[in-house]
Write a structure and sequence with these properties.
The structure holds two protein chains of two kinds. Chain A has three helices and ten strands, in the order E-H-E-E-E-H-E-E-E-H-E-E-E. Chain A is α+β, with helices and mostly antiparallel strands. In chain A, the strands form three sheets. In chain A, strands 1, 2, 3, 4, 5 and 10 form a six-stranded antiparallel sheet that branches. In chain A, strands 6-7 form a two-stranded antiparallel sheet. In chain A, strands 8-9 form a two-stranded antiparallel sheet. The model of chain A has no long low-confidence stretch (mean pLDDT 89). Chain B has a domain of 148 residues: 3-Layer(aba) Sandwich (Rossmann fold). In chain B, 50% of the residues lie in helices and 12% in strands. In chain B, strand 5, helix 9 and strand 6 form a beta-alpha-beta unit. The chains are: A alpha+beta, B alpha/beta.
């Protein structure tokens, strides 16, 4: 059994509903079990153009799938939500990505582990630490140690 | 084999003063890399037209609109580069957030700039995005003036020569101190990336061969 963390993001077509539905879909991943899901986090726009909110969350999954197979399964879930990965500027209904897979360090064209930018984004670190406070990022130490550096990125945890 | 900077960069910025050819090069580079474009859309700033009519009166509104709009664009980019696409996963843009105070220091009065700066210093910290590569285009003031006049964008007619000269100097100073990302400094004087494939290819090769944190590309003709 392997432990993987997955980032979720949405900003179109009722993103709260999209993420809630996506978390439910993660329960049906093959050879996997959803262990925990974080609260939903909102990043609101600052400008005056009425752009939509971004909603993010992180989920922990126990799986026997290899990293690449798990990623393929995640893309399949994305596909169910109407995302077209072959089209530039395609509207993004749902985004999923693999953050961590055990202590794996991997650098291939398809997949980099740990996710190279996860420690720079409050909308990843906050939900991750909510469900895994002691989480370590291979090569970067405790995830919690990166939180102060992103504390100015304004996100809001939504009531469950 | 280790990928070169141009292939591995997820976010590339083309910067430089008005008229130097940022947007054209960003488009060309975007095509070459099969990347998405994140371009400034100055025309959506409802104050900009009034600013060019009456700079003193509308500078602060214009600056604040740009600041918040740019922050929102970068907020989207922060999501996008966390969730890459299988094709075209890189992004090429034609501005750095830091250009915002650079312009503000030229357009605002001293007390307005102080006020602006307080706002900028607090909200700019929200920006999570640092580019992997910056291409800084330079040109002589005379060249900038000639190019802006030639392209004849209606709104830009009111831009004074003095302003373009000052802007060029501000960019020089800014990039002298900039070290957040590797910078390729390009003297665009004898280069035409839009019409001359050779010039563009040469730039691509120079960036691919880039090893240091700062390099210079100059073509003496």
């Amino acid at each position: 059994m392997h432990l993987a963390y997955i980032a979720l993001g949405a900003n179109l077509a009722d993103p709260v509903a999209q993420i809630t539905a996506a978390l439910a879909a993660l329960r049906d991943l093959p050879q996997s079990r959803l262990l925990r899901a974080s609260s939903l986090y909102r990043t609101a726009p600052v400008g005056i153009h009425g752009q939509p909110d971004f909603i993010n969350a992180v989920a922990a999954v126990e799986t026997t799938l290899a990293p690449q197979a798990l990623l393929a399964a995640l893309f399949a879930v994305e596909g169910q939500f109407g995302r077209r990965r072959d089209f530039h500027h395609a509207p993004r209904t749902l985004d999923l990505d693999l953050l961590l897979y055990d202590d794996a360090i991997l650098d291939t064209p398809e997949l980099t582990l740990p996710h190279p930018r996860m420690h720079l984004r409050a909308f990843v670190l906050a939900p991750l630490l909510e469900i895994a406070p002691d989480c370590r990022i291979p090569g970067r130490g405790l995830a919690a140690a990166w939180l102060p550096a992103v504390s100015m990125q304004q996100i809001k945890r939504l009531a469950p | 084999m280790k990928k070169n900077l141009l292939e591995s960069a997820r976010h590339i910025v083309v910067e430089g003063p008005i008229g130097v050819g940022k947007t054209s090069l960003a488009r060309r580079l975007g095509e070459h890399l099969d990347a998405d474009l994140l371009l400034e859309q100055p025309e959506i700033n409802p104050f900009l037209h009034r600013f060019y009519q009456n700079q003193q009166r509308y500078a602060l509104q214009t600056q604040l609109f740009f600041l918040f709009h740019r922050l929102d664009q970068l907020r989207e980019l922060a999501q996008r580069d966390l969730f890459p696409r299988t094709t075209g996963s890189a992004v090429v843009s034609d501005y750095l957030l830091e250009k915002d105070p650079l312009f503000a220091s030229l357009t605002l009065s001293e007390d307005e700039y102080k006020l602006y700066r307080q706002i900028y210093d607090s909200v700019s910290l929200q920006n999570p995005v640092t580019p992997d590569l910056v291409i800084y285009l330079q040109a002589r003031p005379e060249t900038l003036i000639a190019r802006v006049r030639k392209r004849g964008i209606e709104m830009e007619r009111k831009i004074g020569d003095d302003y373009l000269v000052l802007l060029g100097e501000s960019y020089t100073r800014f990039f002298h101190n900039y070290d957040a990302a590797p910078v390729m400094v390009v003297n665009s004087e004898n280069l035409n990336f839009v019409d001359k494939d050779d010039d563009f290819q040469l730039l691509v090769e120079r960036i691919e061969a880039m090893r240091g944190h700062r390099e210079y590309f100059n073509r003496g003709d």
